[in-house]
Amino acid sequence: MENDTDENLVAQVAAGDRRSFRCLMERHMPLAIRVAQRVTGNTADADDIAQEAFLRVWTRAGSFDPARARFTTWLYRIVTNLAIDQRRRPLHADIDAAAEVADGGPGPLSQIEAREQRRAVDAAIASLPARQRAAVVLFHMEGLSGREAAAVLELSEKAFESLLIRGRAAVKAACRARDETVGGARDAR
Hints:
Blueprint: H1 6-14, H2 18-40, H3 43-60, H4 71-88, H5 108-126, H6 130-141, H7 146-152, H8 157-188
Helix pairs in contact: 1-2, 2-3, 2-4, 3-4, 4-6, 4-7, 5-8, 6-8, 7-8
């Protein structure tokens, strides 16, 4: 079973095989959580979304068509749609926003600068419209090809590329504006 393709496992899940379902979950749950967390920016929501996605895999396995997409593309689509829907709901405070513990890596100043830059990029991505955010996450953070990400978002490759370009431009502009604001505040001291 561990050597079966995802597509074969989904076919077995459609027939009610729980072992095949468990195998798919073991293979792809980390991916589902990671994508959901990156799209929503919330760890607790990401776990719930990943579980809901696999519930949908269980209940809708019969509708999966391996001729149209790979299993992972289908799963990305389910997770991304659930995450976008979640982002549209009212926000709650995120416990992950609490103070982070530093590791033994680079010095404190380098860590602060890198962390601030990462926060700026994360904030810029979080402020994108949901579909642009999903495009940036799937392409840049998850490493999907343009074709795969377009399939996940149910777009043509050209439409996906346009969405990705707008998302990148908005992230760059937000980071540039933040750098100018931070630089101006430093100069005022």
